[in-house]
Write a structure and sequence with these properties.
Layout (H helix, E strand, L loop, with lengths): L3 E3 H24 L10 H23 L6 H15 L2 H18 L12 E3 H18 L8 H13 L5 H18 L5 H6 L4 H18 L11 H15 L6 E8 L2 H14 E9 L2 E8 L2 H11 L1 E9 L4 E4 L13 E10 L1 H9 L3 E5 L7 H11 L1 E7 L6 H13 L3 E4 L5 H10 L6 H13 L2 E7 L4 E3 L2 E3 L4 E5 L2 E6 L2 H13 L5 E7 L4 H14 L4 E8 L5 E5 L1
Parallel strand pairs: 8-9, 8-10, 10-11, 17-18
Antiparallel strand pairs: 1-2, 3-5, 3-6, 4-5, 6-7, 12-15, 12-19, 13-14, 15-16, 17-19
Helix pairs in contact: 1-2, 1-3, 1-9, 1-10, 1-15, 2-3, 2-4, 2-15, 3-4, 4-5, 4-9, 5-6, 5-7, 6-7, 6-9, 7-9, 11-12, 14-15, 16-17, 18-19
Length: about 550
């Protein structure tokens, strides 16, 4: 295992943590019974880490080709988590990351400069600082929660010598054991037969750290299936109805330390589940109260609150204010809308003409869940069909859909993996149909469409079709390299033949700006002469689109 934690390991850790939480999000949501059985802990943790990932990537992008220093990366991770923290567990996770960053960056303890990497001793101290700072942020710590799991991770790390990889593995194993014990520590978990949801999320994050340092995936925690956990959570919610505060209030706050100390005291008297994290003038405030207005007013007296979010637990309705955007739609909502992620200006125009609200996907910059939620809000409809059009966006789109549902929007996510599949879904969309029937028809059309993409190899590498050289044209069918060629038309034709060998009635071609019209003409002629009764339709993808997209349905 690597014995140091450098900037590349931190970057990998963040990406793996986001992937793990995306994979486990539904399971974690399903076992969320404490402090409120609102079924959103997994989603909140995902959104929190997503914000951290975006901040880390921004540091790397801003300094390319030179790598950033370790303090810059861990500070960005902590700041991104702080400003993007959602819910009780997300807010605590942000403080855990902040505590780690303080040690890894050398901000506390008078440590030497860690501009390049941190060793195993630094990681042990970082985990201890994380656990301590998280407890300090919670007004009334409760055992059997994520705080207990964090303590156990730090204890296990303290008892293990060695480099960063060994320390991370020990912390992960300690956290898993503590997680398994949480039902015996917190009565509500024992009654529901589940482990703590926040602790389950922290175990996923620590597992990602271990994998980033070792290169080997960790064994997932044991536990009950999603269906069983959902039933348990629903039963716990039935028992909890009518108990506890009615609102969750979250906001970012610019204020000094003294004002925040007074704010803690006031909010503690208004409600429960109080968590205040941050420092250096910027804080994330989370509390459950019956008087949401009083909680916001307390923030106004302390400093400048913004990104205010109020969730009514009973109604399941969330209201978010955006004081600087001024873009919230007004008027009567439409009944149904389509929201789609689309690469290329030409395809964006095509989707818009079909009535879709478009989220542009720029090269090397996939949209975050917040951008998808904003698009759903812009669509201003009671029912929304979401088309991510990219396999890498499946977790992001799922988190966005879950968030939009808390705002009273009925969202159906169709797992389209290419804009070509999205076109097929749009072609059968009928807003006059019942929502479920429309979603089934669109899902069926997308699933029946095979897709391919032509790309240019950036370097020599091994592929499923053999070794490619830099500059070779690659035909990727359903995401896997199937054809390697030296000329675009021949490569596209071979890719088409592979796809049409399994049958098809319609070929869709989407050409990038750099592909001349005669390429499309040759491909159309080839289909017409070789495959009877197969039609071809051609679109221009425009700027920022792929070299070529191919669909067969």
């Amino acid at each position: 295992m690597p014995q140091v934690l450098d900037v590349h390991a931190v970057r990998t850790w963040c990406a793996l943590a986001l992937e793990a939480l995306g994979r486990d999000r539904e399971e974690i949501d399903a076992i969320n019974v404490y402090p409120v059985a609102d079924g959103d802990t997994g989603t909140n943790l995902y959104l929190t880490v997503e914000s951290a990932v975006q901040a880390v990537e921004a540091v790397f992008t801003g300094l390319e080709p030179a790598p950033p220093a370790l303090p810059d990366v861990v500070h960005a991770m902590a700041h991104g988590a702080l400003i993007g923290a959602r819910g009780n567990s997300g807010t605590i996770l942000a403080q855990l990351l902040r505590g780690m960053a303080q040690v890894l960056a050398g901000d506390v303890g008078g440590e030497a400069d860690h501009s390049e990497s941190a060793d195993g001793d630094s990681l042990r101290r970082a985990l201890r600082r994380a656990a301590e700072s998280a407890r300090e942020a919670v007004a009334h710590p409760v055992e059997g929660t994520v705080l207990t799991v964090a303590d156990a991770a730090a204890d296990a790390a303290d008892g293990h010598s060695g480099g960063c990889g060994d320390v991370a593995r020990a912390a992960y194993d300690g956290a898993r054991a503590a997680l398994d014990a949480t039902p015996g520590q917190l009565a509500v978990l024992g009654r529901a037969g589940v482990v703590d949801a926040g602790g389950r999320g922290l175990v996923a994050v620590l597992g990602a750290l271990t994998e980033a340092l070792s290169g080997d995936p960790v064994a997932p925690p044991g536990g009950r299936g999603v269906h069983h956990a959902r039933v348990a959570a629903d039963q716990s919610q039935d028992c909890a109805d009518g108990e506890g505060p009615a609102f969750e209030v979250i906001y970012l706050l610019e204020a000094d330390d003294q004002a925040v100390a007074r704010l803690r005291t006031r909010l503690d008297g208004l409600g429960d589940s109080l968590v205040v994290v941050g420092g250096d003038g910027l804080w994330n405030v989370h509390v459950h109260v019956d008087d949401a207005g009083a909680a916001v007013e307390a923030g106004v007296e302390a400093g400048r609150p913004y990104r205010i979010r109020i969730t009514h637990f009973a109604a399941g309705d969330a209201h978010t204010t955006h004081p600087t955007s001024g873009s919230a739609p007004t008027g009567e909502r439409a009944q149904r809308a389509i929201v789609a992620v689309v690469p290329g200006e030409g395809l964006a125009g095509l989707y818009s003409e079909a009535g879709a609200t478009v989220v542009p996907e720029r090269p090397g910059e996939v949209p975050g869940s917040g951008e998808l939620v904003e698009a759903i809000r812009r669509a201003h409809a009671r029912e929304v069909v979401l088309l991510p059009n990219d396999a890498e966006l499946r977790h992001t789109a799922a988190a966005a859909a879950e968030q939009a549902r808390t705002e009273g929007v009925r969202v159906a996510l169709i797992p389209t993996r290419s804009a070509i599949q999205g076109i097929a879904a749009l072609a059968v969309h009928e807003k006059e149909r019942r929502f479920d029937e429309d979603v089934v028809a669109m899902t069926s059309a997308a699933g029946a469409t095979r897709y391919a993409e032509l790309a240019v190899a950036e370097r020599q590498s091994w592929t499923m079709a053999g070794i490619c050289q830099a500059g070779d044209f690659l035909g990727l069918i359903d995401g896997d390299v199937a054809v390697i060629g030296e000329e675009v038309t021949r490569t596209a034709r071979t890719t088409l033949d592979r796809m049409l060998a399994a049958g098809g009635e319609m070929v869709t071609l989407v050409l990038g700006d750099e592909v001349p019209d005669e390429v499309a003409d040759r491909l159309e002629q080839h289909v017409r002469e070789t495959y009877l009764a197969v039609d071809t339709v051609v679109y221009r993808g425009g700027r920022n689109s792929a070299l070529m997209l191919i669909g067969v349905e």
